[in-house]
Amino acid sequence: MGNDARIREIVDEMRRMADEPLNEKLIAYKNQGGKIIGTLYNQVPEEIIYAAGMLPVRMRDQKAAGTEGASGRFTNVNCSLVKYLYDSASKGRFDFVDGIVGTNACDHARKLEENWASELDPGYAYLICFPKRYGDDLQVDHLAGEYKKFAKDLEEHFDVAITEEGLQKAIALFNEIRSLQMSLAQLRARKNPPLSGTDMMAVMIAGTCMPRDEYRDLLRELVTLAEEADGIDDYQARVVVYGGEIDSLDFMEAVESQGALIVGDSLGGFGRRSADMQVSLEGDDLIRNLAQAYLHGRPTEPRLHGTRADRWAYLEAVAEEVGADGYIQVHIPVCDLWSYERIMFDTEAEKKNLACLDLDTEYIFATPGQTRTRVQAFVEQITEGGR
Questions:
Q1: Burial of 340 (0-12, 13-18, 19+ CB in 10 A)
Q2: Are 331 and 342 spatial neighbours (Cβ–Cβ below 8 Å)?
């Protein structure tokens, strides 16, 4: 089997993992007696869950059927992501988890955890208070305290022990996974990238919903093969995507179907920002190292006050690295923080004469025709120099 064929086989396997909340790898894990903890946001320290002998799985459901199950707990001014997830939970699509862990990432996310815990009996529920400020050791100390309380609560509830050795192994594994993901991200800077943006998102999603040692092994092979791949050459423009909790492969495919190859991103839980950090294994307080990395060690987002210049500088650095012709900013309507970010970034893009397209999508992507039309016009604009 040639490199490109094997790459396709690995990516297709990862896409299957991303297709349903309960995939074949998770079924096998549960059948072996494994416990799964559903995480509701990327601020949850998955290394602690893994060190406790359980598997962290990010809660997502692109096959969600509706939001009627959430109508009694959420309103029209709550984002569709939390409503779809709550609806899926109310219909039993997440019954395979042994508990959930959320953070106060935003009011919508906080209420998702609160309603899920109080109304749907997930077995175990915990809310981590993540700092809203960025910049000094006080916030790191606070977050380290939150993570330590969470670790103790896991130990007590599930009657497990989180050891120093277990934490070291978990951190080393997740560090390797992030390093491999970044290797793939950097290969996208090539003239002929080995993976499309859609494929890259599938790879990133798979890393949140399957046993991590199996994922790491597949990822190692994928990176090796991708380094020698012929790559993609049938595109018209190179773009980077900016936004929050976007995990729709259909959305990415709609963009790329119009010749706009997604060669980089600054996305949240399923994009480059989650991969672009390492946790130190030095010192005698590994949980504080986790807090340092999750708060200060990775690219920032609008939920952290005072980080606007840093996050835009990161986005521009990614765009320069991959040779992007333009930016596509995408957000879910009624997301307070990303709605403000959109307005401010549009002002910044206009000031710097950056080619930028704004796209809205509900959590379940339902506007392929409109999206394709707008992306087609954007590609024509940047390729013909008419912006």
A1: exposed
A2: yes
- Total count of residues recorded for the chain: 387
Nearest to 48 by CA among 175, 147, 157: 147
Q: In this structure, what token pair is assigned to residue 28?
A: 């096998």
How would you write the pLDDT of the chain (387 residues) with one tens digit per residue? 568 899 999 999 999 999 999 999 999 999 999 999 999 999 999 999 999 999 999 999 999 999 999 999 999 889 999 999 999 999 999 999 999 999 998 899 999 999 999 999 999 999 999 998 887 889 999 999 999 999 999 999 999 999 999 999 999 999 999 999 999 999 999 999 999 999 999 999 999 999 999 999 999 999 999 999 999 999 999 999 999 989 999 999 999 999 999 999 999 889 999 999 999 999 999 999 999 999 999 999 898 888 999 999 999 999 999 999 999 999 998 888 888 898 899 998 899 999 999 999 999 999 999 999 999 999 999 998 644
In Å, the largest CA–CA distance within the chain is: 63
